[in-house]
Fold VWFA domain-containing protein.
Amino acid sequence: MKKIFYVLMIISLVSCCKKEPTIPGGNEDSIVSDPNNINVSILIDLSDRIDPQTNPNPTMEYFQRDTEYIKAIEKGFLNHIKTKRIITFNDQMQVFFNPEPSDPKMNEFTKALKIFFDKNTSKDYFSSVEKKYSELPLNIYQSAIKDENYVGSDIWEFFKNKVKDYCIKDDHRNILFILTDGYMYHQNTMFSEEKKTSYLTSKLIKSNGLVTSDFKDIIEKNGLGFVKANENLSNLEVIVLGINPEKGNPFEEGVIKEYWENWFKEMKIKNYQIKSADLPSNLEPIILKAISNKN
């Protein structure tokens, strides 16, 4: 009986002395015992949609909106990390372009923006991530605008050949943010299969007669849409930010969203959102909620 008593005393003392590791800005009372590892990717469309000369916006330029969206994504990512015990850290975030811009500095920027948290992460790493994501995205956009070589964004090819390798990790919740106006075009990836295409332009929308309120019926009846780029992306969540239709067709935004929604469904993406190019202050709560996975 004495031996059992001493064993229980030792266990009790060890339990009392043991202290859970904490992180800067975290709350010990909110530490979770069942961590959720997340893998966040950001795919940036660096086509002429970001050109302040071609597509000006007096309220807030589109490249500036993008940089604020990215800051909100980084904020949501770090908020998630701060709900976890250090020993359970296994989370990452990264930025992609497709195709790569011609400026060789872009590789340095994307390398710096690829961040990873594990149990050996230091407290200083949090502030370094905040600094990188507050400065480098603007450098990326300024470089692309200065280069003026807008070759389009090959989103279709990214989904076909890269998304599984780049954006999906086992044992993680995989979230892909796409910053785009919703049009899809690249000179090296333009083809059609029956009436489906690998691209979407305002000209194509008009030529397909999608300029009336019954555009959904026309799309379904004629089998219009994007060519399916992948078979099964059920372990990927996608949030599209920045849909910005050209003026003149009141149904253009609806057509763009219908194309994207049908494409995601075909690729078995169950969890997705498609948002217009709103002010960052309006989209930030949506971004934070999407990352926190709170209904």
In short: The first helix runs from residue 2 to 17. The first strand starts at residue 38 and ends at 44. Residues 1-35 have pLDDT under 50 and may be disordered. The chain has ten helices and eleven strands.
